[in-house]
Amino acid sequence: MSTVVLLTMTGLGLGALYFLIASGLSLIFGLMDVLNFAHGALLSIGAYGTWWAASGHLPGAGPGGAGFVLAVLFGTAVGTAAAVLLELAVVRPLYTRPREQVLATVGVGLAVPALLSGIWGSDARTFPGPKALSGTFGLFGAQVPVNRLVLVAAALVVLVALRLFLGRTRHGLVVRAGVEDRAMVTALGIDVRKAFTLVFAIGGCVAALGGALGGLYFGSVDPRQGTSLLIFAFVVVVTGGMGSVSGAAVASVVIGLVQQFANYYTAAGLGDLAVVVLLAALLLVRPRGLTGRLA
């Protein structure tokens, strides 16, 4: 029983991490029809920004208490700024040229890890997290890492915030209307480009937050972390339905649990194969994923 509880909580924590990455990816694709292959780079920037600040390089930041919260805010802010810069300098000039858009974001996705390796080396760096989040708590006989709960809580907050943004705010409604009929929205005097930049900023913010909290999950950061997690983020987006934030949430939980249980009860590494098989089977039955809509 304790093993099942531990695997379930660990799977939920992993699924929450996948959702933090995939939700921004799904949001950007669903609203802007942009496949952002540089999304993993934004995660890496957020992770390294948090690691740098928590290591004592930012005044007031540190590995514990309010200092760690400040480090996470700093890393998230840096990732958000990088997302805005990416949209303005790379994506915006290529909105009508999707092929070049994909090549450009792939290039950025390869360049950023190389840049991080050049500055801090290619070896993994120990993540300086709070001691309170490095412990465990008892649950039905299992000792569950506290940081899994932090990831789950963060994912729930992001899910609620994104749904409120899309359905209850003026900016969310403007973006949705701009996707349906950009010419009409522009004729009303609304600058759709600013709304699209906002969407990219939100996506980058969530990805950077995933990178910051991913350091707690893995206990370290390395330049290739964002690239490897991006693969599973794409699996989540396709499984949940392209452009569906709610679908991404459900798919993240399913994929996290399948991966953890398969890795434990079969040979190590077969969890990744199980996820791919699950995706293939789902697409045979439901080609558009679980939902296939933005909601």
Automatic annotation (TrEMBL):
Q: Which InterPro entries does this entry report, sorted A to Z?
A: ABC_transp_permease (IPR001851), BCAA_transport_permease (IPR052157)
- A Pfam family cross-referenced in the UniProt record is BPD_transp_2
Cell compartments where the protein resides = Cell membrane
Q: GO CC: one term?
A: plasma membrane
Task: Specify the domain of life of the species encoding this protein.
Answer: Bacteria
The UniProt entry lists membrane topology as: Multi-pass membrane protein
List the Gene Ontology MF annotations in alphabetical order. transmembrane transporter activity
Which CDD domains does this chain map to?
Answer: TM_PBP1_LivH_like
Annotated TM spans = 6-27, 34-54, 66-90, 102-121, 149-166, 196-218, 230-258, 264-285
Supply the alphabetized keyword list: Amino-acid transport, Cell membrane, Membrane, Transmembrane, Transmembrane helix, Transport
The UniProt entry's GO biological process terms, in alphabetical order, are: amino acid transport
Main localization, broad class:
membrane
Q: Which family does it belong to?
A: Belongs to the binding-protein-dependent transport system permease family. LivHM subfamily.
Instruction: State what protein this is by name.
Output: Branched-chain amino acid transport system permease protein
Q: What is the organism of origin for this protein?
A: Streptomyces atratus
